[in-house]
Amino acid sequence: MNPLVSAICIGQPRPFRGEEQSAFAKQPVDGPVTFGPEGILGDAQADRKHHGGPHMAVHLYPLAHHAFWETELGGHELLAEPGAFGSNLAVDTITETEVMLGDRFRLGTALLEVSQPRLPCWKIEHRFGCKGMVRTIIRTARCGWYFRVIEQGMAQAGDSLERIETGCTPWTVAEVFAEIANPKAGTTSTRLAAMARSDVLSPSWREAAREKAAAL
Predict the structure, then answer these.
(1) What's the rounded mean pLDDT across residues 77-87?
(2) Considering only the top CATH level, what class is 5-166?
(3) How far apart are the first and last CA of the chain?
(4) What does the alpha-carbon distance between residue 68 and residue 58 come to, in Å, rounded to a whole number?
(5) Per DSSP, which regions of 1-108 are E strands?
(6) What is the pLDDT of residue 44?
(7) Dihedrals φ, ψ of 107, to 5°?
(8) pLDDT confidence of residue 95
(9) Per-residue pLDDT at 50
(10) Which of 12, 61, 104, 116 is the right S-S partner for 144, CB 3.0 to 4.6 Å?
(11) Do 105 and 111 meet the contact criterion of CB atoms below 8 Å apart?
């Protein structure tokens, strides 16, 4: 059975830390929304240098991880929110170990393609008020991932996320994340070089794979 999207979440820049703004806090929207090349209409990113764009158009952080963070953090009120980790799509029954880089999913009339893992940053720890979360994400590969929008379309909460194509690459999102982002994860220069040659992987992650392969 295809997983259901229980909420579609968007956000606009607002004060986050001092004068710095962020759209990290995403809130559910009602009714159908448009998915375009730059993401969901009505969603935004304050820091366009590091976030947004066609390779990071739509973010999914698995709801299944919220239970892990409940234990890890000893409970936290933000974990009741579907967009707590900046996720656009709230989906419960799919994780990084089950999704391959390049997999394509139909959501409503939109077609989405897995483009890269999500690299965690300080904003997660700032929003939750908890140090060490980034380190835990890197250690466990509970990173979430981004989609690029291959075909513009409409979708709404309650629609299914239907995988219609897989096998474009041999790597799960968890493997790509661990082998490129985790300095302690095992990998080889051959595997990293192959990731760096993949047209499906977003340019910034391909460059990171090249640099790590060269260092091995």
Answers:
(1) 96
(2) mainly beta
(3) 41
(4) 23
(5) 5-10, 14-17, 20-22, 27-28, 33-36, 39-40, 58-60, 89-91, 104-107
(6) 86
(7) -125, 110
(8) 97
(9) 66
(10) 61
(11) yes
